[in-house]
Amino acid sequence: MTTPEIPDTLGAPGATGTRRTLAVVSAGLSQPSSTRLLADRLADATVRELEDLGHEVRVETVELRDVAHAVVDAMLTRFPTGDLARALEDVTGADGLIAVSPVFTTSYSGLFKSFWDVVDSDALTGMPVLLGATGGTARHSLALEYAMRPLFTYLRADVVPTSVFAATDDWAASADDQGAGLPRRIARAGRELARRVSVRENDGPADPFAATPSFTELLGGN
Fold first, then answer.
1. What is the pLDDT of residue 10?
2. Model confidence pLDDT, tens digit, residues 128-137
3. Looking at 99-113, 119-133, 190-204, which range is the least confident one?
4. Cα–Cα distance, 112 to 114 (Å, whole number)
5. pTM
6. How far, in Å, CA of 50 to CA of 11, rounded?
7. Could you read off the pLDDT of 27-79 as tens digits, one per residue?
8. Which of 101, 77, 99 lies closest to 23 in space, CA to CA?
9. b/e per residue, 103-128, with b = 16+ CB within 10 A?
10. Which of 37, 120, 123, 133 has its CB surrounded by the most CB atoms within 10 Å?
11. Beta bridge mates, 56
């Protein structure tokens, strides 16, 4: 996939020297999984670019297989608890997001979709997001554009132009071979995400009770 480079002005001086948090969501079902491997590669590329821009970076990784039962419970009760609640806080409080899913029957996994179903629909507004997917053959790669990208567009996220699909054959290339297809796409995508994250800080989700009057105000106190 050929994507024009993002202008260097997105990484302009003045946004440097601050801390950024990167959330990484991996929906791989096996352990280890190629999905987690791709997620880690994308995170490493983004961290390198952010550090080059002068930022300290903290990475919070969410393995959806570890909270799968809690995701189903939250869909039934609408009340996330425990590790899932902490995962949601990490994701919605991050400055940037990497989301990677395996592709099954031409689309993202059911677990991947279910996780985003329990995320508040406004929590990702404006958040820079890098999408990745894994599958057996390259013919599944369009799932990134006709399934995953529309999902995050609906959530009003700022999805970077380059998404990264890794088929089984792609892993044959060395991670250090920047001339190879997959490493080159990973490097480009990480650069695009880093430049967006560099100029944006997440103030966190809006407090739904911020406009609610206190008991003192309701009772007419000062």
1. 43
2. 999 999 998 8
3. 190-204
4. 6
5. 0.82
6. 9
7. 999 888 999 999 999 999 999 999 999 999 999 999 999 999 999 999 999 89
8. 99
9. beeebbbebbbbbbebbeeebbeebb
10. 133
11. 19
Q: Amino acid letter at 15?
A: A
Tokens of 200: 């944006």
Which pair of structure tokens corresponds to residue 59?
């990475």
Tell me the torsion sign for CA atoms 29, 30, 32, 34. Answer: negative
- Is pLDDT at 206 greater than 80 in this prediction? no
Amino acid at 36: R
Residue (of 112, 108, 96, 101) closest to 43 by Cα position: 96
Q: Please name the residue that has the structure tokens 């599958």.
A: 135
DSSP-assigned states of every residue in the chain: ---PPPPGGGG-TTS-S-EEEEEEEE---SSS-HHHHHHHHHHHHHHHHHHHTT-EEEEEEEEGGGGHHHHHHHHHHS---HHHHHHHHHHHT-SEEEEEEEEETTEE-HHHHHHHHTS-TTTTTT-EEEEEEEESSGGGTTHIIIIIHHHHHHTT-EE-S--EEEEGGGGGS-TT-TTSHHHHHHHHHHHHHHHHHHT-----S--TTTTSPPHHHHTT--
Token pair recorded at residue 107: 């689309």
Is the distance from CB of 132 to CB of 44 less than 8 angstroms?
Answer: no
